[in-house]
Amino acid sequence: SIEPWDLDATCLRLWEDSRLCRHLHLPLQSGCDATLQRMGRSYTAGQFAALVEAARKTIPDVAITTDVIVGFPGESEAEFNESLRFVEAVGFARTHVFKYSARPGTPAATMPDQVPPLVKEARSQAMMEVGRHSAEAFRRAFLGHTMEVLWERRIKGSDPGQKAVWSGLTDNYLRVRTRKGTNLHNAITRTKLLALAGDGMWGEIC
């Protein structure tokens, strides 16, 4: 995870080295400027969007993942909808959604206008739905592409009598599964991505 204010042009140029994986986790927290200000974050949604644009321009096919908090004290329905629209517009490869919970001793714990639990739950579900659509769109963009996959593990419960199912990752955070009778652990292979499968993709080793 890299805080947005730590990622500048000099840092992005490090990805000229192909050994670096094309994945950045940038915690957004909220896509609404008013909420960000109450959180004490030192950037605006517009500045965050510009950073994402620069990263995508510098690192082709980069996976950008994020964290979002819903129900922060004072978050109105309008502020939440602004954050929701921003997350949808950016189109993250994965969005981790957290419901705000008060921590004793923190400034936010004593802020006025604490958001009721049921409202936080509804907002969490709505934000996760947007995140799911964005993640699927990111995966779908790579259908038919051939990419290198690092195979991490054999999935338990592979059907007896069939080739084992292996799970691995591309360098831009795509989860890929394939069937192979030989041991793929820690192997890197060129793999054609053929179909969406849950939160990942099915591939065929070339």
Structural account:
This protein is of the alpha/beta class and 206 residues long. The protein folds into two domains: 4-140, Transcription Regulator spoIIAA (2-Layer Sandwich); 146-205. The protein has five helices and eight strands. The chain has a five-stranded mixed beta barrel. A three-stranded parallel beta sheet has the order 1-2-3, with helices on one face. α4 links the parallel β2 (63-70) and β3 (94-99). The two termini are 33 Å apart. The relative contact order is 0.13. The mean pLDDT is 95.
Quick tags:
206 residues, alpha/beta, Transcription Regulator spoIIAA, 2 domains, three-stranded parallel sheet
Total DSSP helices: 5
Per DSSP, what share of the residues sits in E-state strands of 2 or more residues?
Answer: 25-35%
Which structural category do the helix and sheet elements fall into? alpha/beta
Report how far apart the termini are. 33 Å
Order of the strands making up the biggest sheet: 4-5-6-8-7
Number of strands: 8
Entry summary:
The chain has helices at 9-12, 33-39, 45-58, 77-90, 117-140, and strands at 23-25, 63-70, 94-99, 146-154, 164-170, 175-180, 188-197, 200-205.
Topology:
Blueprint: H1 9-12, E1 23-25, H2 33-39, H3 45-58, E2 63-70, H4 77-90, E3 94-99, H5 117-140, E4 146-154, E5 164-170, E6 175-180, E7 188-197, E8 200-205
Parallel strand pairs: 1-2, 2-3, 6-8
Antiparallel strand pairs: 4-5, 4-7, 5-6, 7-8
